[in-house]
Amino acid sequence: MKNIFFALISVFSIVSVADAQKKTSGAIQFENIVDPAAMAAASGIQIPDQMKARMPSTSKSNFELLFTATNASYMPVEETEDSNGAGGGGGGMGRMMRGFGGAGGNREYYYVIADKSITEVFDLNDTTYYMPSKLTLSTSGPISTMRIGGNQNDTTKAKPVAPTIEVVKTDSTKQILGFTCHQVIVKSTRPIKILDMDKNVVEETKIWYTKDLGFDFSPNPNMWTEGAVLAIEGRGNSSIAKSIEYRNVSAKDVTAPKKAKLITQADYKIKMDNMMKRFRGNRPGGAGGQVRAIQIN
User: Fold this and answer.
1) Tens digit of each residue's pLDDT (9 = 90 or more) over 133-152
2) What is the DSSP string of 60-113?
3) Bridge partners for 130 per DSSP
4) What is the spatial distance between Cα 31 and Cα 190, in angstroms, rounded to a whole number?
5) Most-buried pick from 42, 195, 211, 270 (CB within 10 A)?
6) 3-state secondary structure (DSSP) of residue 295
7) Tens digit of pLDDT for each residue in 7-52?
8) Beta-carbon neighbour count of residue 124 at 10 Å?
């Protein structure tokens, strides 16, 4: 009888160890929803019905977080007929390849869990870049503030003022994927000028995080306070975890590609500013014309 008892204890111990090892790696599927009209409204802009009708409709996209005990990666995915597609693991999803180019191309984020460092990989002008950063709470605000104006190159106008950020921890909790998530509200107050009228715009973004996963993460690296963020809820823009699967994850799937060119955040901003200037210079009427457009600062 004693031998049977000890044998059962050994089996349970092996199962427990295997289960613990299994839960140190896996995949979490996220859904992102964007409503451009609602985002503009959150920024305090009254959009004419005619312009609203021409704006893109609400869109949904899927992202996948792969994680191990030491690293993680986060990138767009698409539905595939082959459930054994790269990174899919039976969910009918496959990781999208980069190569759409331009500022709006798909981006990949690679995390080193120990120091919360991130390598952002993207294509720009036919070159693959990597840009180092860290999980943080951006001081530029939860949602990009939009501005309506004429000549955006007018240096006599005041530059956009950085918003005042307030982080409010609440007692609210909710279950996401079986994890207890705690709520943090990020309030951004920004003075802006719309059609020569001064106005304070207050935006609120709800962050839901858990510490039960044992690592730090956010689907938006600039919207993070602590823990693993499983949902971000803003007006017109949200990301939420939809499913989790514990399974083995290859080290190469959570390691940044080596064939990429380093770019700093300062150099990236210069490139984007130059691209925006060229775009404004080539549009009808030129940079100083009378065409009025919505600009994201």
Assistant:
1) 999 998 765 544 333 333 43
2) EEEEEEEE-SSEEEEEEEEE-S-TTSTTTTTSSEEEPPS---STTS--EEEEET
3) 121, 262
4) 28
5) 42
6) strand
7) 444 434 333 334 444 589 999 999 999 887 777 666 656 667 777 6
8) 17
What are the beta bridge partners of residue 192? 199
Per the structure, the complete domain to which residue 90 belongs is given by 24-296
The verdict on residue 290 lying in a domain is: yes
> Tokens 């691209």, residue?
275
Of 82, 120, 51, the closest CA to residue 260 belongs to: 120
d(CA 175, CA 54): 38
- Judge whether 144 and 127 are in contact, CB under 8 Å: no
Strand ranges (E), the chain: 26-34, 59-67, 71-79, 93-95, 108-112, 117-124, 127-134, 146-149, 164-176, 179-194, 197-210, 228-234, 237-246, 261-262, 293-296
Q: What is the pTM of this model?
A: 0.72
> What total of structural domains would you count in the chain?
1
Is residue 222 a part of any domain in this protein? Answer: yes
Chain-centroid distance of CA 139 in Å reads: 15
Both tokens of 296, joined, read 């994201």
